[in-house]
């Protein structure tokens, strides 16, 4: 599938977020992350899939315009190659977070942070970062 | 000048040469690869740093690069909590001292100027880089785009810092685009998305570098300038430069008249290893060869994941590069070059790639070295090996790293030392686990070989297959003054579930040591480093392995810079890992496990390996209390941890007795 269709399938993403609520249990209202296809990230225009804590409590997926890093307005931004996005989408009903971790390792997904470590913890992202294998970040290897 | 045996064997490395008008005593450059974090918070060099630098000056390298100093008063270029600064003349006295140390030792002194760019602003709430590309590592600060006025100011600051270094007595300077610092962020497409004359084409991206080279050359016209440049960023997947582009940038630097190019590999945030233990020595040498081929008239320095002087000598002989740039191997053993020159390389304490020298600085801590417990403590006489006031007869119980370090340090001080071990070899449990290491078992086993050599050379008696117990102690009563208990640790069997089928549940150490053979289906209880090492090793040997871990993640006792490697291997090898899962029973051909998600389930197994937390083997503390004058303990016997702590514990005890 093409990347734009994948990120637009909000029903599937919302179902995934509901199934993995425990990973997002600490995410505070107003905190969110974005996933943008690499082509849109390069062009600095297009749509971004946003996961965030809805005012009524649960995690919700929505689409927002993407106009570049500067105005992305999310705590974590995942830039996804088509291959990585497809791999995650293919297992959305099974193990999408494991696949995100694998895509990060394969380099098909790049995670940017727009907040400092302490702020991410405050925002409730520690469980997700741990799940994605990014709990300790800041090293030369 | 007459060459020693070792210098003759490593003729190319030790041959004198000339560079930039200087006579250089050999082809070895001490690289400013690691920032110590030993200094004052305002950037002033501390007595601790001076003591360390004196050791560096004495390593015997022909060129010595002093660690990177940030050039701006605001600290936008400051990457590390206690990094040195060079933005004011008030810092000069200590730099003068360091230049003096290097000259006194016969070296050429180079001062590195390090503006960290994307990784800078450690005391500020932001960093500067060419374009706003967010961090991928949250340790670092949110970026601000550098303005053209700031570019000019930054270049001026670099030139002023270079002038200051020369004023302090340094012979030359170095600027670095290592692993994502400011220069690298301009050169790379990943972080440079500007649309003005400093962005876009490779020539435009390289403009900042060229202007900086020009400015420093003008500021210090009679002194050489080294530029460190990426041979491979390892960031191309995310939009960074390809290797071809890296080499085009080297050509640009060469055209600008730099006096040496030092080649580096990888960014801090690169998705793959560049210098870790999992990268084979020599892996990146092709980059140096390519640079030398491309720029035959520009001296090339190289040493990325090249820890071996013999290999380096071969590279220099073959014309792959001109100077072996070495740092970490000399942290592990400051005597490395002297041992090489005197044909005593078998005594070398090899760098095993634990990367304490790098990963700790991201916790704002001073760097340390697994293999060199005195590193960073040179200013403290308590850490030095000094002659013992009272010569004692010491028995060390346990020939693992803690015991052997203690034995070696104590022997060097003049004590008589006998090491006892119930097994048939030096190395303790560490040796057993090292043979299963997937990253580079030869690195780890070099630690054991070092102990074997040093016991011979120092005359330490080793009594293997000899278990120390009260009976033996009574038989040698009054022969020893001191007993050191370095008996290591064992799996805490109290943490294992009841085993109803005899022989099914086995101890991790027995498996590691080869005393127990595993069946095809293996379940490993515990995903600490011991469990992970065995899981990875058994899986590569064809076993069907499952890991069961009560905690929420794998590798909780693995040091941060290597934890990712284990979890990646578990995934690559497709080893099922059940976290937050507890084993309740080992019986009837398998393990019963339970977790909150799936409830209870049964995993069939031919062998179940207990690899849960360990406890220190401390029984002898009580049994020997009234049988010896002095009784001490060290290493895992006190608190089970790992190689670094064992070595450091043993050494600290050895220099104190």
Walk me through what this model shows.
The complex is a heterodimer of chains A (141) and B (657). Chain A has 141 residues and is an alpha+beta fold. Helix content of chain A is 42%, strand content 23%. Chain A contains eight helices and five strands, in the order αααβαβββααβαα. Chain A has helices at residues 3-8, 10-19, 21-24, 38-43, 82-90, 96-106, 117-123, 126-131, and strands spanning 32-37, 46-53, 59-66, 76-80, 109-113. A five-stranded mixed sheet of chain A has the order 3-2-1-4-5. Chain A is globular and about 30 Å long. In chain A, 45% of the residues are buried. The model of chain A has no long low-confidence stretch (mean pLDDT 90). Chain B is of the alpha/beta class and 657 residues long. Chain B is built from 23 helices and 28 strands. Chain B has an eight-stranded parallel barrel with strand order 3-4-6-9-10-11-12-13, surrounded by seven helices. In chain B, β20 (521-525), α20 (529-540) and β21 (544-548) form a beta-alpha-beta unit. The model of chain B has no long low-confidence stretch (mean pLDDT 95). Chains A and B meet through α6 and β5 of A and α21 of B.
